[in-house]
User: Fold these one by one.
Assistant:
Number 1:
Amino acid sequence: MGITTHVQFTRLNALTKSMLKTVENRQAEYFAKHQQYFQGLKMPIIGKLDGDILGDINPGLKPQDQEASWAEFGPTDFKPGGKLPVHISINVYDAPIGMGWILKLELFADLGPDTYGNEGNHWVWKHNEGPASIGGIWDDWYIEPAEEQ
């Protein structure tokens, strides 16, 4: 059981690796130009994607205090009419020891417990890029307990 039993796991795993590489490259470019990291609000913004159903990309989505949207920052497929099988967001932080960002992918599917013994249907994959030592599970799909959602 678990995420590896998802019928789209191979595609989701490839998307996760590709997305991370692209975001790492784009964040380096964005930081060099703006001296801060890009913050990407969660999209698609509607529904609960299950890794199979695709949600519409909102390329113009951005925080109020940031000029760039997903369209300016994002991978080339983050264009009008594009679709994603998972939700994506990028959170940024500015800690006393430096700045960084966290890429978060989410999907909702009943696949049984994860490898950490968590149960539920809110699957999350996160990557922390920066100096802050943040607890939790990183670079692996896991079920996020309800109190953390």
Number 2:
Amino acid sequence: MKKYLLPILIVSFWSCGDETETTDYSSEPIVGLWNWNTQTMESLNNPNTNYILPYDSITFDFKSDGSLIIVDSRQIKESEWDFNDYNGEGIWEPYIGSDSVSIDNGAYSEGRREYAYQIDMNNTLLIHRTVNADDESERIFKDHFTRN
């Protein structure tokens, strides 16, 4: 019995090695450093609440390993609507076969959410999402970025 037990134990420990899967999104066009320029909000039910917030000094760094670093180096907030400090780290991943990404960062996404994005010929990134507000109105948020 002992002569069978030793080979079984060796084989079982040998096959339990650390298998770390690495993520490589380097071929995704969103990878890189982006400056956040503006955010627009369009209310489909109440156009009187539409707004445009100018941003500067906020960068999003979409890393090829799926990590996301947001640096908010603003000295003052742009308006009374702007109450977030966006500094932080998070994760992102593309939805294969679509122009959408999943972003999970506390200040920007408030949990893991899906965002559609577009990058035009001028290297301008547009990330947009539709949100249903408490008053049941549908709002479209569009965040405009330029590549750094």
